[in-house]
């Protein structure tokens, strides 16, 4: 079986391999939830707000003791991924691949620890703890999460601070479509919504 090192490919820049493959990596994914407290209820109402970005975390080990070379020749390539590109004004989008795993991402943070040095103080061993955030183009996100509210009736609980306009925008993608919600729920004042109330979100014709 062919040995392959983990590879980092910044878009528009030269790709590079890590010196030593990581012993492990972790992938984290979660949802952002909102809690709304309602007087008289034992527990708050939980509402889904949005999904969180997948995060890839791992430690990268670097050792150049045998070559007697500055290990920062390698670690600086990783730190450079935090830099802002002149043309885009944002850090570069990268692809990290290893063992059939491919992750399109942006480097979120790096924590470096240097713990072996030559007599003149040149570091020759380091461990970088890195965290990457998954990068997905906006048009891909929209296509993969089509709204069903426009043609399906559903129910929704009112959270503190909700207005019919923002509910219409979240459900239909158009804040001007608040009137069908008001009519379906016999709401006289669209600016006054009681937290905890259950609303019918009607299908749009």
Explain the overall architecture.
The chain is of the alpha+beta class. The protein has four helices and eleven strands; from the N terminus they run E-E-E-E-E-E-H-E-E-E-H-E-H-H-E. It has a seven-stranded antiparallel sheet, with helices on one face. A hairpin with a 5-residue loop joins strand 8 and strand 9. The longest helix has 9 residues. The mean pLDDT is 87.
Strand order of the largest sheet: 2-1-7-8-9-6-3
Helical fraction equals 10-25%
Written as H for each helix and E for each strand, in order along the chain, the element string is: EEEEEEHEEEHEHHE
Q: How many helices in DSSP terms?
A: 4
Which class do the helix and strand fractions yield?
alpha+beta
| Strand residue content | 35-45%
**Straight-line N-to-C gap:** 59 Å
**In terms of quaternary structure, what is this?**
single chain
Gyration radius from CA atoms, angstroms: 25 Å
The parts where pLDDT drops under 50 for at least 5 residues are none
Whole-number mean pLDDT: 87
Shape: elongated
- Record field, number of beta strands: 11
Sheet of most strands: 7 strands, antiparallel
Topology:
Elements (H helix, E strand, L loop, with lengths): L6 E4 L5 E2 L7 E4 L2 E6 L8 E7 L3 E9 L8 H8 L14 E5 L2 E17 L5 E12 L3 H7 L9 E4 L6 H9 L6 H6 L13 E4 L4
Antiparallel strand pairs: 1-2, 1-7, 3-6, 4-5, 6-9, 7-8, 8-9, 10-11
């Amino acid at each position: 079986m062919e040995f392959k090192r983990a590879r980092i490919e910044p878009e528009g820049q030269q790709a590079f391999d890590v010196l030593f493959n990581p012993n492990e990596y972790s992938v984290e994914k979660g949802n952002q939830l909102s809690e709304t407290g309602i007087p008289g209820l034992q527990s708050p109402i939980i509402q889904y707000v949005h999904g969180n970005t997948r995060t890839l975390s791992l430690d990268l080990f670097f050792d150049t003791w045998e070559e007697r070379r500055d290990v920062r020749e390698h670690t600086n390539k990783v730190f450079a991924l935090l830099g802002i590109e002149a043309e885009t004004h944002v850090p570069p989008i990268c692809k990290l691949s290893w063992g059939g795993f491919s992750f399109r991402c942006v480097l979120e943070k790096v924590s470096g620890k240097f713990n072996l040095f030559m007599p003149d103080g040149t570091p020759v061993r380091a461990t970088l703890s890195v965290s990457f955030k998954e990068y997905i183009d906006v048009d891909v996100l929209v296509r993969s999460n089509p709204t069903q509210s426009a043609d399906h009736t559903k129910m929704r609980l009112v959270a503190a601070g909700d207005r019919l306009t923002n509910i219409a925008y979240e459900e239909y993608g158009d804040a001007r479509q608040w009137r069908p919600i008001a009519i379906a729920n016999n709401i006289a004042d669209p600016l006054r919504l009681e937290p905890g109330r259950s609303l019918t979100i009607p299908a749009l014709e």
